[in-house]
Amino acid sequence: MEVWKQLKKDIKISNVPEIWDQIVLMMENMACSNSIWNVVNRLIIAATIYYIWKERNDRIFAQDSKSAEVWWFSTLRNN
Questions:
Q1: By C-alpha distance, which of 26, 27, 76, 28 is closest to 51?
Q2: Global confidence as pTM
Q3: Which domain holds residue 76?
Q4: CA 7 – CA 50 distance, rounded (Å)
Q5: For residue 69, is it within any domain?
Q6: pLDDT digits (tens, 9 = 90+) for 5-26
Q7: Which of 22, 37, 53, 69 could make a disulfide contact with 17, Cβ separation 3.0–4.6 Å?
Q8: Are the C-beta atoms of 44 and 11 separated by less than 8 Å?
Q9: For the chain, what is the domain count?
Q10: Phi/psi zone of residue 64: left (φ > 0), alpha (ψ -120 to 50 degrees), beta?
Q11: 4 within a domain of the structure (yes/no)
């Protein structure tokens, strides 16, 4: 949750909810519109979910754990 809050702050998308079910519902509603901002928002959310999933797998399978702050910095720097 810390990573998600930091992302929302950094890219100024405070209108995006923090609860997973609400995020999915919002994404479903965005799918109806192909405006550039909706497409960009969907890409940002999808990329964030991917990197959070990747960190989760690293923690489980490689026993490699980082704090949210370190993870955020290394993800932005390396990608």
A1: 76
A2: 0.61
A3: 34-79
A4: 13
A5: yes
A6: 777 777 677 777 778 788 788 7
A7: 22
A8: yes
A9: 1
A10: beta
A11: no
For the chain, how big is the Rg over CA atoms in Å?
A: 14
Does residue 50 belong to any structural domain of this protein? yes
Residue with tokens 């990747």: 54
**Could you tell me the two tokens for 11?**
């890219």
Please report which confidence band the pLDDT of residue 55 belongs to, taking 50, 70 and 90 as the band edges: confident
Give the separation between CA 79 and CA 62, rounded to whole angstroms: 20
Side chain identity, residue 75: T
Average pLDDT over residues 54-79: 74
Handedness of CA 5, 65, 63, 50 (dihedral sign): positive
pLDDT of residue 6: 72
Measure Cα distances from 51 to 29, 35, 58, 70 in Å: 23, 25, 10, 13
